[in-house]
Design brief:
The protein is mainly α. The chain has one domain: Amino acid/polyamine transporter I (Up-down Bundle). The protein has 19 helices and two strands. Strands 1-2 form a two-stranded antiparallel ribbon. Strand 1 and strand 2 form a beta hairpin. Helix 5 crosses helix 17 and helix 9 runs antiparallel to helix 14.
């Protein structure tokens, strides 16, 4: 085969069924709902609404969350059909490998890998900020060298972020069913904390803080502020909040009855999440003028203290810190399954695709953990929040278009799923266009880093992946 033929070689879905059949199927609908809600409603619900309001939208931050959810919802339908038809580890990477070809699967998977590396570091950084704010009133304060990323405010390493990511890896390394039980309990606690914040904070809302709801547009050092331009910039920044349903799909090879569990987990978790996001955003802005959230990594605690509820702030932030572990669990599980898929197919060294004696991809898990820790150590919170969305959006575009290649094969060499994306063939292209519009709204730095990551992925594919690909080796025989 020539190079172009190799790039477009499609994996036989039966190969993935056999390879992933070694993984233990133990996850139910409630586990996937917890994974999705735990990952979507992660550090971002306690950090992003205030940051986006201060930088781009003003009180209209809730509109940005709704628009981002609509764009994500269109793609979620495509994800639900793909995951039901092809419950393979690696989500978009494996699906696109089957329906479009190896190279396109690699591009989608490589984009997602950036998402998981950075998102883990991002959540770890947010957890650290909230924990340090929580213990500060007790007179406990870590030295700057152990509180901040290298080169930021005299920091050397964020030790709390490091320990948090490490603890989660140890938990998942002992089995996803055990991690899922911890996840379920923490998600219940976290939703309780969010509802408590909304209930208590609602009585401190001031109408004046919503006026004007959409501030007049102006250009600032942070980019567009106010007007629909600011709302659009907010959508692009917020989109990282909705990566959770990919973390569900990445674990579909470990689902019990994926035909039902995957669509219910993906769509259900997104619906729950957007309701909570909008509620928190409105209450946050109603309590404190949005300008005060600038450079605050723990706006929920700030709002409750401002409203005269310091004890509730301690309760909510304590649960919030614990609840952020749910996002770390979900993303560690999903990211490690993606890296396992690369190793499984020979796109990265094969030892990454090895399972241990208990049928767990721990080589991939520890690789993900080490890289995320290094990212969290060297990149500050504000930079990480800007870079997560790009990889997600690229993968979402591939999945949306992939439906057109999947549908003709359903019931033939691919299972005919019980759930299908509605309003075909219109909705898939709408999903693609929505994610493309959000991608174009990313700031220059996010696009630049996405471009650098893409070029690195091309170098790895053409220098290693295409030569070690198990699929191409088999077809060359």
């Amino acid at each position: 085969m020539n190079l172009w033929q190799k790039m477009n070689s499609k994996e036989d879905p039966r190969v993935y069924e056999n390879k992933d059949g070694h993984l233990v199927r133990s996850l139910k609908v409630r586990d996937f709902l917890a994974l999705g809600v735990g990952t979507i409603v992660s550090a971002s619900i306690f950090t992003l609404p205030g940051e986006v309001a201060a930088k781009h939208t003003g009180p209209a931050v809730a509109i940005s969350f709704i628009l981002a959810a609509i764009a994500a919802g269109l793609v979620a339908f495509a994800y639900a059909e793909m995951a039901a038809a092809m419950p393979f580890a690696g989500s978009a990477y494996s699906w696109i490998n089957v329906v479009l070809g190896e190279f396109w699967g690699w591009v989608a998977g490589w984009a997602l890998l950036a998402e998981y590396f950075i998102a883990l570091a991002f959540v770890g950084s947010g957890l650290s900020a909230n924990f340090r704010a929580l213990i500060a009133p007790l007179g406990w304060k870590l030295p700057a060298s152990l509180s901040n990323a290298f080169g930021t405010d005299d920091g050397i390493i964020d030790i709390i972020s490091l320990v948090s990511i490490l603890l989660v890896a140890l938990l998942i390394g002992h089995g996803v069913s055990r991690a899922a039980r911890v996840e379920n309990a923490l998600v219940v606690l976290k939703v309780f904390a969010i509802l408590l914040f909304i209930a208590v904070g609602a009585f401190a809302v001031k109408k004046a803080n919503f006026t004007p709801f959409i501030p007049k547009y102006k250009m600032t050092a942070n980019g567009p502020f106010g007007g629909w331009q600011g709302i659009y910039a907010g959508v692009s920044m917020i989109f990282l909040s909705y990566i959770g349903f990919d973390s569900i799909a990445a674990n579909s090879a470990e689902a019990i009855n994926p035909q039902k569990t995957m669509p219910r987990g993906i769509l259900g978790s997104l619906l729950i999440a957007v309701t909570l996001f909008v509620g928190v955003s409105l209450v946050l802005i109603g309590i404190v003028p949005y300008q005060k959230y600038a450079n605050s990594a723990e706006p929920v605690g700030l709002a409750l203290r401002y409203a005269g509820h310091p004890i509730v702030a301690v309760v909510v932030q304590t649960i919030a810190v614990l609840g952020m572990f749910t996002a770390l669990i979900g993303m560690s599980m999903a990211g490690s399954r993606l890296i396992y898929s690369f190793g499984r197919d020979g796109m990265l060294p094969k030892w990454l695709g090895k399972l241990n004696s208990e049928r767990r991809p721990n080589n991939a898990l520890w690789t993900l953990t080490i890289v995320a820790i290094l990212l969290g150590a060297f990149f500050p919170f504000s930079m990480l929040s800007q870079l997560v969305s790009a990889g997600t959006l690229i993968a979402f575009m591939f999945v949306s278009l992939g439906i057109y290649k999947l549908r003709p094969r359903e019931g033939k060499d691919i299972d005919d799923p019980s759930f299908k994306m509605p309003f075909y063939p219109v909705l898939p292209i709408l999903g693609f266009l929505a994610t493309l519009i959000v991608f174009l709204g990313l700031d220059y730095q996010a696009k630049l880093y996405a471009g650098i990551w893409f070029i690195l992925g091309l170098i790895i594919y053409f220098s290693y992946g295409v030569r070690h690909s198990i699929l191409n080796k088999q077809q060359d025989k």
